[in-house]
Structures are given as structure tokens and as C-alpha cells.
Amino acid sequence: RNLGSLPVIAPGQVLAATLRQLQQLLNGAASNCHDDVKAQHAMRSVEVELFSRAVLGIRGQQQYASLTDSVIDQLWQIVDAYRECLAKFRSSAAGLAPFSVDLRSREILVVWVAYCITFETNRQHYVVANYGVALQHEDLKHLSLSDRAAVDAALAVGSYIMQCTVPNKPLFSLRDAGAATFAMAEQYASSDEKLLSIWKDEQAAASERVSRHWQQVQKQQEEARRLTARLRQLESDRSRYQSLLASSRYNGGQHHYTMLKLSAVSAEISSTQSALTAAERPP
Known about the structure:
The protein is mostly helical. The chain contains nine helices and no strands. The chain has helices at residues 15-29, 37-56, 62-65, 69-90, 100-122, 148-163, 179-191, 193-246, 252-280. It is elongated and about 120 Å long.
């Protein structure tokens, strides 16, 4: 069939401009990833661009040292879109063996190149500069690549990883149970003015919460002491009224009055006990 013209990514552009063009290619191929030449063209364009950048070199390149967070985010959006499109393509007849191993290897290499670019950007921070990559160059030997450009890119990535490996300090790796990552985080947090300011604000807020809590505790303790004293007085009054009722010296009118007082005292004892229980409950 006539495919018409397919856009070609111009070489030598800054990464941000290239990523915008790649995003357009992937968006156009998103709905036709199954055995579609446009999809293959979009995926191959991503590979060609990232592989060529790896071969030209990543370490020490100023264009990667100064990438903004938005460009890094866009880079990984491209990688995610590429992988999604590739996953759909691999499920089609065109993506089945004998090409599946090669496609999978190219996918891994794309992710690793993006990782190296990201690490190079973050490596410019003086704290991160003391730590190494999480990847191991030996793992590249498992890739099965079918063309020279991909092999050269793999060799370049392996070289970059070897240069950026710091013994016993793999950043964001579980090989050391995260020890290097936590050490880096602690070092970064202790030297970052913004984080230190947040920490101080949180400490002040925590102290204020403790102070308010203790004030409430003291208030309830004082209330509990008052209610306890009042409860003892009420119980004494109840005992006195009960004794008066048991006495035969009082006439009917006095007996009725005493019954009313006893009923009122008993009701107040009940409400005081409830209030005391509430006052003794932790705030």
C-alpha cells in the first residue's frame, strides 16, 4: 500500500526539540501498533535517536548536564509510550519470533540509554556525584542485537556505566539494601535549605501540638481532681440522707423532704461519675 510520506527526525537537535517530534510520531502510531509500518517507524525513530546519542557520548556532555525536570519527564514519557507501542506490536504476527528477542533487547537498551541521560543530569548535583549508577554493565551481555547501531549503543552504554560505577555506592539500588540511597538522602536533606526549613517548621508544629496536648492533659487532671472531691462530698451527703431516712425520729413531712434531697444527690452523683470518666479519658 502507499504509505505516503513519513516524518524523519532531523539529527543534531537539542533533546527537547527531538522529544517533541518523537512524541508526535508515537501519538500518531498509538492506535495502530499492531503490524503497522507507521508504528514500526515511530519505534525505530526512538531507537535511532537514543542509540545515536549514546554512541556520541553522554558523560560530560553539557546538553545533558543542564536538562530541566520537564525535559527529563518528557524523556520518560517517550520511553513509556515506546514500550506501550512495542508491547502491542510484539503481540501481533509481525512481532513474533524470530524477532521477539531482538525487540526485547532493543527495548531494554532504550530504557538504559534514557537512564544514563537521566543519571548524567542528576550527577551534576554535588551530593549525587559521590554515588554511582544502579545498573551493572555485565548485564548487557544478555542482549541479542541484530544491527551495528544497536551494538555500538550497547557498548557506549556499557562504557558509561563502568565510568559511573562507584564501589559500594549504587544509587537507588537494592543490592546494598538501599544503604547508599538512604545515606545520600540524609546527606542531601541535611544540606538543603528548603528541606531544613520544612524540618524546622515541622518541629515547631510538633512542639506546639505537644504543648497543646499537655495543656489539655493538665486541664483534665484538674477537672478530675475537682470532680473526685465533689463526688466524695456527694457520697457523704447521700450516706447522711440515708441515715436520716433510717431514723424514726422524723415525721412524714421531714421524710418526704429527705427523700427528695436523696434523689437529687443520687442524680448528681451519677452525672458527676460520668463527667469524671470523661475527664480521665486520654485527650
